[in-house]
Design brief:
The protein is built from 11 helices and 12 strands. By secondary structure, the protein is an alpha/beta fold. The chain folds into 2 domains: 199 residues, NAD(P)-binding Rossmann-like Domain (Rossmann fold), CATH 3.40.50; 87 residues, Alpha-Beta Complex (UDP-galactose 4-epimerase, domain 1), CATH 3.90.25.10. It binds nicotinamide-adenine-dinucleotide.
């Protein structure tokens, strides 16, 4: 199989590509299409010399001519490329609509024309909104609150429309909050870890009571691979990590991991429209494809913090681009 991976130089996409390249039974060719925005980093991927199966194309998913040329020589697409940070979407949602909605539609159009076999749309649990108790199944109506979540929901609906209208084999994954190495230091875990390791304070939104489910990036990537290889056309699969924590509880764990105290925490004004709680029911992917997370949160967080501590050289590059 020749696989096109969009956004493969970002956080999750790069882990996905590393996993494919480490698997002798993986695709015969992997092409990464990435615009290298502030969040993309070519150094997150191996060089062509290190990985002969990998081709890197510096380009934009909104470039219909380029996307048409690339889809014509691939069998499947895994689509990660997106503007991904909620706070940036609150500051200005323009790029979110452009990349996440129009970019996805450009890819879908090209996929239909090229006769792409399978198109995996990597989405988020944030499309469901916020839930006080219980967990969302895939049947939950979409009720996104932030411009980011709304743009992802629109992209999901567009993907399902291309499935129903054109018969494109679209499969959608909706995961919870990812963590792990190489996450851009604007998201909570790398932001707090970096600041604590630098001896600085960390900004905790509101009372810190917002609840998120945490998913190790390698568990997420394994689940996407299961969907790519064995999922059903037109289906949505929730992917969870099994560890729900308030932001305050998470902060406590990060303080402990970095040897810092609560005096290093600054309470800042809450994010506008901050969703109180996300929680996905991931029994469908467990039942149909055998997925279960293998990383415990304690172990995953410890190795993640250790990675940021041991890879200080990665930080200036990433942070300078912000
Ligand atoms: P990221 O911001 O780290 O990476 C996004 C990548 O997409 C970057 O390499 C960037 O250069 C590239 N990109 C952006 N715009 C592009 C464009 N127009 N054309 C081509 N490439 C472009 O994001 P991530 O955290 O790795 O997230 C990957 C996907 O997973 C996104 O679709 C996101 O919505 C979804 N997701 C992420 C999380 C999470 O916790 N990080 C949770 C749920 C879903």
């Amino acid at each position: 199989m020749r696989l096109l991976v969009t956004g493969g130089a970002g956080f999750i996409g790069s882990h996905f590509v590393h996993g494919l390249l480490a698997d002798p039974a993986g695709p015969t060719a992997v092409t990464v299409l990435d615009a290298l925005t502030y969040a993309g980093n070519r150094a997150n991927l191996p060089t062509a010399r290190q990985a002969p199966r990998l081709e890197f194309v510096h380009g934009d998913i909104r470039d219909a001519a380029l996307v048409g040329e690339l889809t014509a020589r691939h069998d499947a697409v895994v689509h990660f490329a997106a503007e991904s940070h909620v706070d940036r979407s609150i500051a200005d949602g323009t790029e979110f609509t452009s990349t996440n909605v129009l970019g996805t539609q450009t890819l879908l159009e090209a996929a239909v024309r090229a006769g792409i076999g399978t198109f995996v749309q990597v989405s988020t649990d944030e499309v469901y909104g916020s839930i006080a108790t219980g967990s969302w199944t895939e049947e939950q109506p979409l009720a996104p609150n932030s411009p980011y979540a709304a743009s992802k929901a629109a992209a999901d609906l567009m993907a399902l429309a291309y499935h129903r209208t054109h018969g494109l084999d679209v499969r959608i994954t909706r995961c919870s909050n990812n963590y792990g190495p190489r996450q851009f230091p604007e998201k909570l875990i790398p932001l707090f870890t970096g600041r604590l390791l630098d001896g600085r304070t960390v900004p905790l939104y509101g009372d810190g009571g917002n609840v998120r489910d945490w998913l190790h990036v390698e568990d997420h990537c394994r689940a996407i691979r299961l969907v790519l290889d064995g999922g059903r056309p037109g289906e949505v699969y929730n992917i969870g990590g099994g560890t729900e924590l308030t932001n305050k509880e998470l902060t406590g764990r990060l303080l402990a991991a970095c040897g810092a105290g609560w005096d290093r925490v600054e309470h800042v004004e809450d994010r506008k429209g901050h969703d109180a709680r996300y929680s996905v029911d991931w029994s469908k992917i467990h039942r149909e494809l055998g997925y279960a997370p293998v990383h415990s949160f304690d172990e995953g967080l410890a190795t993640t913090v250790a990675w940021y501590r041991d890879h200080r050289s990665w930080w200036p590059t990433a942070a300078a681009a912000a």
